[in-house]
Amino acid sequence: MTKKTIWVIDDDPIYQIIINKTIQRFGLFSAISTFKNGKIALDALLQLLDNDTALPDIILLDINMPVMDGWEFMEELGLIKPKFMKQIVVYIVSSSIALEDKNKSKSYENILGYLSKPVTVDDLISIASTV
After folding, report:
1. Is the distance from CB of 123 to CB of 24 less than 8 angstroms?
2. Which has the least CB within 10 A, 30, 42, 63, 111?
3. What are 73-128's pLDDT values in tens digits?
4. C-alpha–C-alpha distance, residues 60 and 65, integer Å
5. Any idea of the CA torsion for 89, 86, 40, 62, to the nearest 10 degrees?
6. How far is CA 91 from CA 1, 50, 51, in A?
7. pLDDT per residue as tens digits for the range 25-65
């Protein structure tokens, strides 16, 4: 199995440190990048339009963030997705237990799952092996 690249889009710096260390410790992915909001991540995606190999395979996306939240990011991703030669899958990772958020996540074809924080090692193993 080829290791995939993963991006974490979340405004919580503590969560970013924890998820980074967990991913690195278990060596489940070939590379990890973190972004503190959807706008910064979207700008990075747009810069990589001509370089599909640098695009992430998986995105762990928080919902509630400043500047551009997770839902706004998903709307923008939907607009630029046809320009990518590879599929990028998204997992919502949120502390929200709201049923409407879980149901909304099902309306996006790119979103493969909805995970509650904190993400466990088992969650990451499952994500790494299914994509």
Report:
1. no
2. 30
3. 999 999 998 888 888 999 999 887 788 989 899 999 889 999 988 888 999 999 98
4. 13
5. 0
6. 20, 24, 22
7. 988 899 999 999 999 999 999 998 877 678 999 999 999 99
